[in-house]
Amino acid sequence: MSAIRLPKLNLIGIQVSKQVSQKLGRTPKIPHMLLPKTRAPNSSNSSNSSNSSNSSNSSTKQTPGWTKTKMPRFLIRYQTVIIVMCAMVVVFLLLSNMQQGKMLRRIQKVDCVSTRGVFTCSSKYSTGTMMISTSAACKEYIYEVGGVPFVRIPGFDGTMAVKAAHTVRVRDARPSCKMTIHRTTKEFLPAKHKGIVWVTTKKHTQFTMVVNGVEVLEQTPVALINSKINGNWVAYIFDPEVVTTLADVEITGDSTDAIHVYI
Questions:
Q1: Do 238 and 196 meet the contact criterion of CB atoms below 8 Å apart?
Q2: Spatial distance between the Cα atoms of 251 and 208, rounded to a whole number of angstroms
Q3: Which end of the chain is less congested by CB atoms within 10 angstroms, N or C?
Q4: Is the previous residue joined to 239 through a cis bond, with omega within 30 degrees of 0?
């Protein structure tokens, strides 16, 4: 077997150092080997790394191509003022057009069809006033226009006026009569009337009226009742001084001719 060689020690230096330490009275110090120190992680670096990671995350969250900017306050105020002024102008124009439409008075022609002595006038209008014109000879056959007896029609002696409706019937005009009807935008204001009106022919000489089951006229002669004549028609007027409906009124005479009752 081959002998293992050990490294030579510097015994001379150790002995000399012992001698020196004995003279000086202290133990010699053996030099230590220096090891490389491990550096602790720098807090600034860690914060920078965290900030960089956060910034990288935030940068990834931001939408590329634009940056968010804050509008100055005075621009926001001016923008609000401009929007409000534009809205006010639009409202003013709308109101002015509406008022102009209301102020303009218009007259439209209405077509009528005659069937069996009844003129039926149809239109798209439900507001305003219907104005009817015909000859005086033809008016003698009329006892009702638009559900209103001739005695209550304004201007019956000239141009008749009734409330506008989609359908207005004129009774009992002859087919040979010429009649024109126009609708005007002017509001129709009916006059206030009291009492009960019934229209019939001159053949009746007396009437009996029952209102709410109470007999208010008992075979009363026509001379005692207010009346108005139009051709062959006679309109009688009597006020029982009670508020009632048409269904609660019953009128009979001494003739077979029809009696048309109005409230």
A1: yes
A2: 6
A3: N
A4: no
Euclidean distance between CA atoms 130 and 147, whole angstroms: 13
Q: Mean of the pLDDT values across residues 56-84? A: 64
Residue in the structure block whose two tokens are 């002669």: 221
Residue boundaries of the structural domains of the chain: 109-184, 196-262
What mean pLDDT, rounded, does the chain reach? 80
- Mean pLDDT lowest for which of 19-23, 78-82, 107-111? 19-23
Cβ distance 134 to 175 under 8 Å?
no
Q: What is residue 22's DSSP assignment?
A: H
**Count of CB atoms within 10 A of residue 84's CB?**
10
State the burial class of residue 173 (Cβ atoms within 10 Å of its Cβ: 0-12, 13-18, 19+): buried
Report CA-CA distances (Å) from 92 to 100, 149, 151: 12, 45, 46
Distance CA 195, CA 239 (A): 4
DSSP 178: -
Residue-by-residue DSSP string for 98-128: HHHHHHS--EEEEEEEEETTEEEEE-S--SS
State the sign of the Cα–Cα–Cα–Cα dihedral 245, 248, 253, 255: positive
Using alpha carbons, select from 114, 121, 171, 117 the residue that is nearest to residue 147: 171
Interval 127-174: pLDDT, tens: 999 999 999 999 999 999 999 999 999 999 999 999 999 999 999 888
What are 181-226's pLDDT values in tens digits? 999 999 998 888 889 999 999 999 999 999 999 999 999 999 999 9
Residue 244: CB atoms within 10 Å: 12
| 22 token code pair | 């004995």
139 close to 156: Cβ distance less than 8 angstroms? yes
